[in-house]
Amino acid sequence: MSGADNVVWLGTPPFPEAARTALADTRLRANLRRATGTIRDKRLAVAAELEDWEELRETAAAVKRHTLRHLDHHLLRLEKAVTAAGGVVHWASDAAEANRIVTALVKATGEDEVVKVKSMATQEIGLNEALAGAGIRAYETDLAELIVQLGADRPSHILVPAIHRGRSEIREIFRREMGEWGRPAPEDLTDEPRDLAEAARLHLREKFLRAKVAVSGANFAAADTGTVAVVESEGNGRMCLTLPETLITVMGIEKILPSFADLDVFLQLLPRSSTGERMNPYTSLWTGVIEGDGPRNFHLVLLDNGRTATLADEVGRQALACIRCSACLNVCPVYERTGGHAYGSVYPGPIGAVLTPQLAGIQNAASLPFASTLCGACYDACPVKINIPEVLVHLRAEAVEAERRDRLLPTFEALAMKAAGAVLGSPRRLATVQRLAAMGARLLARDGRIGALPGPFARWSDTRDIPAPARESLRAWWRRTRPPSSEGSSTTAEGKGRR
Amino acid sequence: MRIALFITCFNDTMFPRTGRAVTELLERLGHTVEFPQAQTCCGQIHFNTGYRPETLPMVRRFAEVFAGYDAVVAPSGSCAGMVRDHYRVVVAQYGDAALAEAVEHVVPTVYELSQLLVDVLGVTDVGAYFPHRVTYHPTCHSLRMLRVGDRPLKLLRAVKGIDLVELPAAESCCGFGGTFALKNAEVSNAMLADKMRHVQNTGAEFLCAGDNSCLTHIGGGLSRLRTGVGTIHLAEILASTEGGAR
């Protein structure tokens, strides 16, 4: 298994098509604008409080660069430390292998249900579906993940998976579905956030107290001590990480940090970048197993699933530095209009547009690197300084190369680019085209504006007028008004450029 | 100073008046402006759309045409950004040592207009006069690639007669993004709609920016809706004088 199977849910239409559906959803647009706007402002405010914010970012980026460069070394250290602390380490090369490992571990306990801490890695590999296939029910315990699960929905944001839902929708989902999964919602449930949270709390409490097995992801793992960390806001994670007898953690191999001390930097950056809080309410750290305290069995599944291949790409590998804070999503003007579903991946937004094609193979997500205006807001917001625009453009080149390889005939775009290259390759040809454009414009334009264009440019002219090309290009004007004999400026210049 | 004008292919064809404005302005400030006729395009369209090898001839041409000037000025943040940020990338991937050296020489001499005026020529008051209500949109590449900061605003504030009003959500992308506007036309339109709403709320007669490409996109929408709001390049405001053009 590889490629498209690495990341669940790539059956979506390409981005432009999926985005069209999303754009038509007025409720989605309103929910997203409000939610991303709020988090964006909070993030800016709390980042501004730290005088050394830029230094922290630089340090974090440096730690990540170092870690990725010596990933093999640190992973072996981690395995050793976790094993020494009484945990068991498993290596999974892809999604299928990880799912097999986790399923077998749960089966071995004799249980047929697990509680889950919110985890991107298990979303990425489609663990819940795989467990369901083996007759094991997985209960999401993060409030937003619970909303998504009960609604038979897909997450649309890394941090706030149900960001696309309004509270009245959540009330409906709770009333309709909670009874199917356990304790039903109260009859008189309102759409007040407090009431909704209380309903979820009562529903989930039963699960926490009953569960013998928990599955989590990891925000960080320290290679020197074998300590694994989960950062969260609700406390549900802590319940899952401490109450059950068996804890299975699935972690992307890039989540590792060389040492426990490195957490210092990341625990400052992550909450500020993700929720706009100075500190997250719950940070759970555990090291193997301890007699009489917490789970008696701890399994750490180290997941590759396309990461080693990503690591081999010198430009693209920086995407592995991502700490899943989702700051890039919240500042992205494209994400703000389309929401996460349009990206067809558990990793939406700018980071998803660079991570997904690398994990799944460019041919399986070729529209994603183009789902950006390259405005650069994501790069500015990223706490670990991932140059997302750089990776986007890099992957665009890969997408074009892949298409050239796979297609017998060039696309319209490729032909247009070739033609443009020919014109722009010579000032004389450019001047000719400029004269032709000016002539054509006189036929098309009314009051100096063109209202409709044919072919692929119709998409532009559907909503925008186009100014008519000038009657005289600048180069023609210069040639006419500043003849080479006077002062010789253009003569020298032209002589210079001639090859 | 002996300054070469890199007009950019788009301005050359569509907005020669911006090039004339840059020339007028710099000559008024006492500098020599030259226009190398062999120039064509920075290659950004190809580079950003993924046609990277096709960019190389344009990089080569640029490095040859613009070698040896005190400064090269481009009235476009995104084209100047292409040269400054991406030329080295193209050369490292496809070029040779000679080209790498040529690029190393030319890249540091390339400036976006407001950077040239404020940082190199050391002026903020260029003696312009423009008695209109204007709002300024900082285009993404000027803002986040070139980091021009408030240089354009400093220049605009020094213009006599101007009524400069702040644009809400100024730093949000307008949705142009080159081929993005064609590939993701609907998303582009949604972003444009918000930008136009903010522009109209200012009550400005003109929207000013340092990139005619973004202005073509926003202005095209404003024109289609018959809003009566005009668009104007920063250079054209700075070139305007009392009794002069406009």
UniProtKB/TrEMBL annotation, chain A:
Keywords: 4Fe-4S, Electron transport, Iron, Iron-sulfur, Metal-binding, Repeat, Transport
Domain (4Fe-4S ferredoxin-type): residue spans on this chain: 319-386
LUD domain ranges (all copies): 77-289
Biased composition (Polar residues): 483-493
InterPro entries per record: 4Fe4S_Fe-S-bd (IPR017896), FTHF_cligase-like_sf (IPR024185), Helical_ferredxn (IPR009051), LUD_dom (IPR003741), LutB/LldF (IPR004452), LutB_C (IPR024569), NagB/RpiA_transferase-like (IPR037171)
Entry's Gene Ontology molecular function annotations: 4 iron, 4 sulfur cluster binding
The protein's name: Iron-sulfur cluster-binding protein
Domain (Lactate utilization protein B C-terminal) ranges: 410-480
Pfam families: Fer4_8, LUD_dom, LutB_C
From TrEMBL, chain B:
Residue intervals of the Cysteine-rich domain: 3-83, 134-218
Pfam families to which the protein is assigned, alphabetical: CCG
Top-level taxonomic group: Bacteria
InterPro entries according to UniProt: Cys_rich_dom
GO MF entry, a single one: oxidoreductase activity
GO cellular component: cytosol
Name by which UniProt lists this protein: (Fe-S)-binding protein
